[in-house]
Amino acid sequence: MSPTAKLGEVMSRPVEVATPDQRLAEIDALFATQSGLPVVDGEGRCIGVVSKKDKARASNGLDSTIGEVMSSPAVTLTLEKTVLEAAALMLKHKVHRIPVVNEQQQVIGIVTRTDVFQALEASKA
Q1: Closest-CA residue to 19 (of 57, 58, 72)
Q2: Contact 3, 95 (CB under 8 A)
Q3: How far is residue 102's CA from residue 80's CA, in Å, rounded to a whole number?
Q4: Residues 31, 75, 88, 125: what is their CA dihedral angle, to the nearest 10 degrees?
Q5: In whole angstroms, what is the distance from residue 24 CA to residue 99 CA?
Q6: Secondary structure (H, E, C), 28-48
Q7: Which alpha helices (H) appear in the chain, and where do they start and end?
Q8: How far apart are CA 119 and CA 9, in angstroms?
Q9: Which of 9, 31, 72, 116 has the most crowded CB, counting CB atoms within 10 A?
Q10: Which domain of life is it from (predicted)?
Q11: Domain 7-122, CATH 3.90.650.10 — does that match?
Q12: How far is CA 85 from CA 36, 52, 62, 116, in A?
């Protein structure tokens, strides 16, 4: 793996997603294994991201809806972008995960800082 590896090679899938009308309580258990989820509309298009930090700031706690607390618009990338481009975008926007989308903006994967670090570390070996 190298910094020029395409996101399609390093992204995780399938991806757990949330919808804006869900309550935080409905997805809270997922935060035990991941720090954030893409938020999608009825057509599966990425409209935001909800993270543990968003949950911590929720004014109504677990009764808050995802739409009330999510970060939007989402920072997204496409399959053909590289690990290096993902790393630069993560630093620029101070995010830990970037949904990978197709031409219709539908979520098809997710790339995390861990994915990026592992690809960059493998390039040194």
Answers
A1: 72
A2: no
A3: 10
A4: 50
A5: 19
A6: HHHHHCCCEEEEECCCCEEEE
A7: 7-10, 24-27, 52-56, 66-69, 83-93, 113-124
A8: 10
A9: 116
A10: Eukaryota
A11: no
A12: 20, 24, 34, 10
Split at pLDDT 50, 70, 90, the class of 3 is confident
Provide the token pair at 82: 């590289």
- H-helix or E-strand spanning residue 97: strand 97-101
- pTM equals 0.91
- Residue 6 is classified by DSSP as B
Ordered by start, the domain boundaries in the chain are 7-122
Please report where in the chains the tokens 């979520």 appear, as a residue: 107
What does DSSP assign to residue 95?
A: -
